Amino acid sequence: MEILLTPPVAFLIYIPLVLIIFFIGRGLAGKTKETPLKSTIYGSGEEAPTSMAAPGYRPFFLIAFFFAVLHLGVLVLATGPVDKLMLPYLFGIGLALVALLLG
Question: What's this model's pTM, rounded to 2 decimal places?
Fold first, then answer.
């Protein structure tokens, strides 16, 4: 029974299962009628914004680096012994987080 849990065998079992569910669902859905209303953008009943919410990826990367430094720093600190040699490392993580917060 453990062979069923190996990724290649599970993949070969799940793909036909997913295809069966897909085709049954497609048959139950019925025929569609294309209308201009179906192809318009829906934004909770409001007009779609014409300007970008955040220009570029800079805000995303600041948040991503913040969490990467935070999580990896805590992971490294948690795997080491608790002594005074970790204080400079902890100070460095804090400094990096402050630098990322200030942008």
Answer: 0.44
Angle, alpha carbons 66-69-70 (nearest 5°) = 80
pLDDT at 43: 66
Q: Tokens for 73, please give them.
A: 């720093």
Contact partners, residue 61, CB within 8 Å, separation at least 6? none
Q: Specify the amino acid at residue 54.
A: A
The rounded distance, in Å, linking the Cα atoms of 28 and 22 is: 10
> Kind and range of the H or E element at 67?
helix 58-79
DSSP state of 37: T
Between CA 15 and CA 23, with CA 20 as vertex, the angle to 5 degrees is 120
